[in-house]
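Lecture 7 notes: from sequence to structure.
We start with the chain below.
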Amino acid sequence: MKLDAPEVTIFTNMPHTHASAAQGGPSTAPETVAATAKATPVDADQLPLVDSAASNVLKKLTWVNVKATLKAYFDTLYTNNTGTVTSVAAITLGTTGTDLSSTVATGTTTPVITLQVPSASGANRGALLAADWTTFNNKQVASTTGSWTIGVTFGGGNTGVVLAEDAGYWVKTGKIVTLTGTIRLTNKGSSTGVAVLTGIPFPTVSGPPYGNPRCGGVIGQANIFNTITNIRIWADHSASTLQLITNMNTNVTDVHFTNTSALNGISITYITA
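Predicted structure tokens for the same chain:
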């Protein structure tokens, strides 16, 4: 409707821009409710704003400014944990997996720190590779075995000596060696002097940290001349032969042997290099 007057023109059905009915017009709420929804706003999106500092006039606010304002506010309430973590809680080692992990003392966007453990080598400390475990275990617990041929000399010679049996066996665990065996003569030959057993596979050791050890052993049964009992085996330091000692603590010599002498159940344990 239009009313004619000298100085007044009145228009009706004009759109209202009031934020609420209390401001003199209908609310914008129905239009907001009827609008299409948007789940994720982008920085250029806009929101209506009643400016309380400017007589409550209607203004617009972009989404990027909403985020910036909220961040500035929340930064005053909560600790900002961006940056480098310099302190972590105690490390707990598990029984599975290949990494070491620890929960950090304060929360971050990535609350678990993975430690890269180098592979162990001759130059570096670190984690043993799977292939190294066999070598490691063998060095710790494995034993090796073998055979040795037992010989006998008198005064360093063995002229004419004939052995019908000279079989010996050894077990080596680390630096510990145990020898066993039996010898049986059919001819003691013509050499004379102190009797020693030869052919031991590993010499005895001397020097630090072992000092100058003398290692003793036993013979289970000896069939030699003069009925010597309790014959002992003696391995001096840095020796590659075994001495035979009587129960009188004297050396066994060729005199004590016959052409059919036998030493059964030889056994001695000693340290090698």
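Points to note: Helices lie at 29-34, 63-74, 130-141. The longest strand covers residues 176-188.
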